[in-house]
Amino acid sequence: MKRTLLNIVLAGILAALVAVNWIGARDYRQPNYEFIPNMVHSVPSDTFAPNANFADGKTMQAPPPGTIPYGMPALPYRATTQDAVRAGIELANPFSATNSVALDRGAVLFQRFCLPCHGATGAGDGPVAKRGFPPPPSLTADHARQMKDGQLFHIITYGQGNMPAHAAQISADDRWRAVLRVRQLQERAAAAATTAKTP
Q1: CATH number, domain containing residue 174
Q2: Going by C-beta distance under 8 Å and a sequence separation of 6 or more, which residues neighbour residue 26?
Q3: Using CA atoms, how far apart are residues 70 and 147, in angstroms rounded to an integer?
Q4: What would the pLDDT profile of 41-76 be if each residue is shown by its tens digit?
Q5: Of 9 and 148, which is predicted with more confidence?
């Protein structure tokens, strides 16, 4: 008796659920209920259509002066030797030479992007140069040591001589980290030279 009663109750619940489902079934021939119709049917302005909301009557507005694309920090320099020198005066490396994380990252970047031409020590004797390509100047020579960080950053960014620009391959922060690695190699070369001169 109890089982029969339970079955009747369950059957009733099932029938009720089926009825609710049937009553609330969506009619795909009709649009959904619009809770806030003004947001659904807002009036857009076409890109090249006239627009009375702006003083010049245009929908598409020019970006404000000085606007740069998101993720692309401004670098107001050209790919010239003069601007490389100017970058050396105006730009400073945001990473400290004692930042071990930045130095480690710089070493990885140097190995990936610089070593093929510049060699493991920066002497300009990389595998590419050993196979007939004109070797680059040594990064440990006096002229390179006298360059400021901003100038090295500019050269990595825009290239110089046979060296291509690396801005597309290396982010701005990573270019600064690569500069740290160059400085590290210069310090090692100078220490080795001092040791060699010591009797």
Answers
A1: 1.10.760.10
A2: 32
A3: 30
A4: 777 788 899 999 999 999 999 888 777 677 666 788
A5: 148
